[in-house]
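yo

u said u wanted the structure for the complex thing, so here. seqs first:
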Amino acid sequence: MILAVLTVAGMAAAMGLRNAVHCVLALTLGFTGVAALYLQLDAQFVGLTQIMVYVGAVAILIVFVIMMTHRSEPAAPPNFISLWTVGSAVAAAVFAVLAWAICASTASTQGLPPQPGVTVQQIGDALMHRFVLPLEIMGLLLTAALIGAVVIAMGHKEDMK
Amino acid sequence: MSSLQDYLLLSSLLFSIGFAGALIRRNAILVLVGIELMLNAANLNFIAFWRYGPAPAALTGIMFTIFSISIAAAEAAVGLGIILAVYRHFRTTDLNLMNSLKG
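structre next:
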């Protein structure tokens, strides 16, 4: 319960704060809260992966990009209030529909089954046997995405100082 | 926090927060952050369904989440690269000021 409140507070602050750097700081709090929820759900490997990838890599990457594009901090926009009202109304409607569907479902009220006790060795075995093709495709996708990101962000020769 | 319903409600709340942020914010980086929040909510759903599902020994939920986290990392890298390229052209990250595709 505390974890849930912490996660929701971090993510709401990440979306609500005005300064972009503060948003990323709150975002790391939210990511850490989600990782703690994974640990609570007996998925230790995924929780540690979440901390390494999101808190360690994605948040740092976002901070770098914010620092590189910092001088265009948008001032208080004139149509912010109406945009805020419409956007949050749509999001609240989405949440209401989702919550209604979850509460109406009978499958989601069952109790906790016994602890599965998954070890990292089992995960490695599954990755190397049953899920080896998705793993290779993922490696190819990551390589292509990182090379593509560098090429896109590099720009043309004459732009470089 | 003891039943599947609580986790599903929490993840739908996180999804709605990310969705609201992606709709409201005008900084392109923060819109990308909102998309990351929505992906996180989906991952939390995967793990919750895996934990409360009938066959947790099959590890499908964990595998799905690992691959989803990898895709989210690749998507963040490419998205931030695009934002940097657009910033170099328009000198801003405000989405309302990016109003032409041709440049």
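Chain A touches chain B through 81 residues (CB under 8 Å). The radius of gyration of chain A is 21 Å.
cya
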